[in-house]
Amino acid sequence: MSFVKNLLAPGGGVALIPFIRYVIMLLLVVCLAAFISGVARVHMAILSFLSGGLLVSLSVFQTEYEKMTNNRQGGGAAGGSGKAPAKNSGKKERAD
User: Per-residue pLDDT for the chain (96 aa), expressed as one digit of tens each?
Assistant: First the structure.
């Protein structure tokens, strides 16, 4: 399958996250440089804040997405949101 077909497939846009992260980092650097040089300081401060928040939200999304895919593949650690099958399905347990 070509790269374009992978991107257009359901869930394929996740492959662009590293590229998007670098572009937003570049936006953050340019906005901070413009802020330091005195060009439209208020606007650059707001844009820097928003691009920093977008970087944080992308990293949170990526970690949650990786947790979800690991849980679906069966390689996830205990404590995930998915239900694990019961070990003693035919036996009753004592409640002390």
Answer: 687 787 777 777 788 888 899 999 999 999 999 999 999 999 999 999 999 999 999 999 989 988 988 898 886 555 555 555 555 555 666 666
